[in-house]
Amino acid sequence: MSTLREKVKQSLPAPLLGVLRDTRDGLARAAQWPSAALHPWRRDSIRRLNALRNSRQGERCFIIGNGPSLQKTDLSRLKGEFTFGMNRIYMAFDQIGFSTSCIVTVNDLVMEQCYRDFQGLGIPLFVSWRARRWLAPAENIHYLFTTYTGPKFARNAAGRIWESATVTNVALQLAYHMGFSTVILIGVDHSFVTQGKPNTTVVSQGDDPNHFTPGYFGKGFRWQLPDLDTSEIGYALARQAFEADGRCVLDATIGGKLQIFPKVDYESLF
Predict the structure, then answer these.
(1) 14-269 belongs to which CATH class?
(2) Are 89 and 211 in contact (CB under 8 A)?
């Protein structure tokens, strides 16, 4: 069957194949819409997300990636700043002495394997609508309608958000939604030691060289290989949206490989 499917794909003109793929993806998103728009749990999250809109207008925030460069970054500087942490950033809380202002996580494998950790956190959590399988409603949980397809930059995070293969882009859309005028990225190394086909699920065989601690995706942890090209599409859309509104995203990652946003020296920010 897979061989036949590949033969059919190869026989179709690229533009037609693109139209068929977009149509399929659009139908899949449409099927998700009723639940994501009308379910009581989502309705409550939509209400609370709308209350957050432009609530931080004119302020700055930091989006903290989980790359190895965090080990070279003085995170103590961020105490008192508004910070978006992502995925398993909570593993650093004891070391840095404070919690991030919130955590954003939308990856199913992370949620499936770590949901008990998230249940124990008292800070605001922004999670995908799919995460309801593991996390029941709570005062600190905000369900986001995130999708894998349909490239866009959501100026209103209460609606649909495109993930663009990285939780960092979801955090950028939340930061825009809240009204932050300056968003600063740190720990977004945009490079991985582990190589392979993007989005492939693999099982870690030992210490994790791609994040700030070896145990982040430690031995036995299932995770997906990065799709840096798709991530860059989302980053470019983010830069365009912020700059069109007179706002900016700066990249203060120490030694980061991302080239989409203007670079700034981390220490100069304080």
Answers:
(1) alpha beta
(2) no
Note the pLDDT tens digit of each residue in 91-126. 999 999 999 999 999 999 999 999 999 999 999 999
Could you tell me whether strands 201-203 and 182-186 are parallel, antiparallel, or unpaired per DSSP bridges?
unpaired
| pLDDT, tens digit, 9 for 90 and up, residues 9-47 | 566 566 654 555 556 756 777 778 888 999 999 999 999
| pLDDT score of 56 | 98
DSSP states along 146-185:
EESSS----SSTTSEEE-TT-HHHHHHHHHHHHT-SEEEE
What CA–CA distance (Å, rounded) separates 192 from 200? 14
Contacts of residue 206, defined as CB under 8 A and 6 or more positions apart, other chains included, come to 218, 219
Cα gap 29→84, rounded to integer Å:
27
- Are 127 and 102 contacting, i.e. CB atoms less than 8 angstroms apart? no
Could you give the C-alpha distances from 145 to 126, 183, 212, in angstroms and in order? Answer: 10, 22, 28
Q: Which two tokens stand for residue 117?
A: 């950790």
The residue written with tokens 């965090």 in the block is 70
Q: How far apart are the first and last CA of the chain?
A: 59
For residue 8, count CB atoms less than 10 angstroms from its CB and return exposed for 0-12, middle for 13-18, buried for 19 or more. Answer: exposed
Q: What is the pTM of this model?
A: 0.92
Give CA separation, 38 vs 47, 170, 173, 177, in Å: 12, 22, 22, 21
Q: Are 69 and 95 in contact (CB under 8 A)?
A: no
Q: Is 16 helix (H, G, I), strand (E, B) or coil?
A: helix
Name the residue ranges covered by the structural domains of the chain.
14-269
Based on its alpha-carbon atoms, the radius of gyration of the chain, rounded to whole angstroms, reads: 19
